[in-house]
Specification:
Blueprint (H helix, E strand, L loop, with lengths): L1 H16 L25 E4 L4 E3 L7 E7 L4 H17 L5 E8 L3 H11 L6 E3 L5 H4 L6 E5 L5 E6 L6 H14 L3
Parallel strand pairs: 3-4, 4-5
Antiparallel strand pairs: 1-2, 1-5, 3-6, 6-7
Helix pairs in contact: 2-5
Length: 178
């Protein structure tokens, strides 16, 4: 009886602390974009309404991140992304595109302020852009080369430190310099 209670408690905790699968998602998780794939055409807007499209990323090494401020896994990974931004934001060969899925600019601004984040963010209020990449599961992190080809990706957990991901980014930047 005690073992069953412990197992049930562990499963209950996992269910409420993870963003593995969206609560409204009954289907199997599908990744539409994987390492080796071309980025799909998309456009996102920042809180000021300025647009950024995937074509503008060409020529840059890009870290593309889908998140929600209410996702515990995103809360764990976003400080790593902020650390990358702090170290690489002055490098003109690098772009960081963090995309909030199904949230308002006000919600993200509050979260950014609370966590003292300086990195830029964009909005995908209807999940239209996210739906080009997958049907479920955040955070999603895509490392994209100068030709807009995904070279690496992580779902739910990056399994890399900030420093390790910076190394991957810098390797791609150096590979594109003649």
């Amino acid at each position: 009886m005690k073992t069953t209670s412990i197992i049930l408690l562990a499963l209950f905790s996992l269910f409420f602390s993870s963003c593995v699968k969206d609560k409204d998602q009954d289907d199997e998780i599908e990744n539409y974009i994987k390492a080796g794939d071309q980025l799909p055409d998309f456009t996102v807007k920042n809180a000021a309404g300025e647009e950024l499209n995937s074509e503008q990323l060409k020529g840059h090494v890009t870290l593309l991140v889908f998140f929600m401020t209410t996702c515990p896994d995103c809360e764990r990974e976003l400080p790593k992304i902020e650390g990358i931004w702090q170290q690489l934001h002055e490098n003109t060969d690098f772009k960081l595109v963090t995309v909030s899925r199904a949230e308002t600019a006000s919600d993200v601004n509050k979260y950014w302020s609370k966590n003292e984040f300086k990195m830029p963010f964009y909005l995908d209020p209807a999940r239209e852009v996210f739906s080009l990449f997958a049907n479920s599961t955040i955070p999603r992190v895509y490392l994209v080369n100068r030709e807009n080809i995904v070279t690496w990706m992580a779902i739910e957990e990056m399994e890399l430190t900030t420093e390790q991901l910076i190394e991957k980014i810098e390797e791609l930047i150096e590979a594109g310099i003649s």
